[in-house]
Amino acid sequence: MPPMSLIGQVTKVGFMNKTATVTVSRFIVHPKTGKRLERSKKYLTHDEQNNLRMHDTVLIRNCPPISARKRFTLEKVLKSPEREREDLHARQAAELNEGTQPSPSPQAQA
Question: What b-and-e string marks burial along 8-21, b requiring 16 or more CB atoms within 10 Å of the CB?
């Protein structure tokens, strides 16, 4: 099989060690009605560092079989909403702490 890369969303993580389930969606056009239909497929993906989280958008690439059902490995995390939210909270906490630092009083300087 030639190298194949897919972009999908992590739908299940943390139940198996070094494994995450990635759902890859695609759209097809119905031959008679012309409507767009969403088709999706789940792939078990090897995550060596266990760093994936729910709803991450990832790039996966096929590889030689790792286990009976694992045929893909994590290539890159494209977007991680949970990490972005944690980074935002950390920045806000740092700004808040920076703004509430006690300034030296004029009496202490004299």
Answer: bbbeebeeeeebbb
Q: pLDDT value at position 104?
A: 61
* Whether pLDDT at 91 is above 60: yes
Helix (H, G, I), strand (E, B) or coil at 27: strand
| Tally: H helices and E strands in the chain | 2, 5
Q: Which residue has the higher pLDDT, 98 or 41?
A: 41
Question: pTM of the predicted model, to two decimals?
Answer: 0.79
Residue with tokens 């630092």: 101
Pairing of strands 70-79, 36-46: parallel
Contact 89, 97 (CB under 8 A): no
Buried b (16+ CB within 10 A) or exposed e, 58-97: bebeebeeeeeebbbebeebeebeeeeeeeeeeeeeeeee
Give the per-residue pLDDT at 1: 56
At residue 103, the 3 state secondary structure works out as coil
